[in-house]
Amino acid sequence: MSFQAHKNLQISVYFLLSLIDKVNYLTKGSQFGNLIVMESYKLRKLFLDFFEERGHKIVPSSSLLPTDPSVLFTTAGMQQFSLYLSGRKDSAKDFGSKHLVSCQKCFRTGDIEEIGDDTHHTFFEMLGNWSIGQDENGYFKEGAIKYALEFLVDTLGLEKERLFVTVFKGDGNIPRDSEAIELWKKYGIPMERIMECSKRDNFWGPVSDTGPCGPCSEIHYDRGEHLGCGRTDCGPNCDHCKRVVEIWNLVFMQYFKNEKGEYELLNQTNIDTGIGFERLLSLLQGKSASYETDIFADFISQLEIVSKTRYDDNKKTFRIIADHIRSSMFLISDGVEPSNLGQGYVLRRLLRRMIRYSKLINLKPKFWIEFVLMMIDKYKDIYPNVMSQKEEIIETIKREEEKFEKTIQSGLGIIEKMVDKKEWSGEEVFDLYQSYGFPLELSLEIAKEKGINVDVNGFNKALEKHQDLSRAGAEKKFGGVGKDSGEVGAKLHTATHLLHSALRKVLGSHVKQMGSDINAERLRFDFSHTEKMSPEQIKEVEDLVNEKIKQGLLVKKEEMEIDKALASGALAFFKEKYPDMVNVWTMFDSDSEEVFSKEICAGPHVENTSELMSFKIIKEESSSAGVRRIKAVINQ
Ligand code: GLY
Questions:
Q1: Could you tell me if 102 and 232 lie in one domain?
Q2: Which of 51, 179, 531, 606 is deepest in the core (most CB within 10 A)?
């Protein structure tokens, strides 16, 4: 038999086995007792329905890009409710209820290097329920515990005898949670399955330096002795095995961590909970890895066919490709573009890491297109913007792949020549970054695989030196703006500010910048607004911007301290971390002195709006829940 025929046979056998496996879990249930085995869509629905039936309002997932400027991504379901949990806003007013439930898109960068094991993901979904403050129907610890047990045991069929719970044992500042212990006992969890743990495991939040937080109780599930390490102290948070897995975190939010690092008691108590969706799903489908659940099963089998290799032989590679394609799709659909900064840099790392791993199983450029489409199909009914952003997703990955493809082979060739060294210098790794497009983390990972040290400090120094040089170059270029690309950039920056102000005047002051991007052809502007703009509104915004271009407003630049700038009413892009001194750009009518726009911005601008000639909106679309996106051009 030829090698190829042998491989094909292997793949078909594997295919058949996974099919039998699938039929098995759908008909007979998993090997774990009386669980009701279900596909992912059903679990999401069961959870949302369960809480809706109990008076909770279903709130759609917010974007992966949070409104809080101090965090890069949405990492938990409670983030969009932070102001309600700390009592600064009223959820009854804004959501029609104090009891909320959601399935939230989350992204955690801390786990990128761990992708490939059974449980970690960059993108994942989190199920959660909230009780905010306590009105007459409000619930706190007891309600949260009761609901959790009811859902897990009565709805999902988990065995109560296999549940473990953990509670906060207290420290100098915050007392032991004896109330939670008593409640767990009251609802049938015996003391030998209640573990008291320290702050590291049983105190949750805040998400950034300050914010609502509190002690928590985690619910863990014993998957069975056969998966254990056999140690007598094996249980929740075991360092040696994954027999007992965490499935639900119930946070009893009673505190607010302030700027001084002190825990103040909140005026209200809240329940905030989080279930790692993929993990619970794996448990319900009797799989130890989420990559083997229905979310990824088709993806993995198709990857076997396309790569002519087996998942079982290449688990890490398959999983990295699956995880990174899925998370890149979600990041791009929420407006991230690859770059060397912040969120864009994370996306670049994911895409380049995915491409590098795809080479290990001989996948060719653009192989990922059909896999992106599979993922879009899988999620389009839950997160419709993956569908509406389909072209953007594919085009963005294509552009990034083309960029990286130009250099990756030479880069890998250079690395081949460096594998005998004990250490790579900062300059060498910087060269891989600068000339061959290898993110630092990718070089670090390759070096680690080969047991090589890397001078990371040296890399950072080389990067800083390079940035200083290019900044000096850019200043020169913008200083004598001639007919170069700087001119278009300056015009589009100014056009972006005019658009921002016009949107606020036409749609209302709830409009806030959620993202923006400029290239040689167009500007792109994401802003908070829930409804599609009507053709009349689009025209009104366009007309207003054109009017301001015609009037020839002066554009004035002032340098000032960030606090002063904000106090003066200058708009800021709140996802940005600003330096102490910022540039404030004001556009005003020199006759009436009336200010049309005032914003903090590091970009270059024109001196007079008349330089823009004309402005046109070419697209208005949804970017993510509650966020619209406009693309516009000038001078046409
Ligand atoms: N906010 C609860 C959790 O993320 O676990």
A1: yes
A2: 51
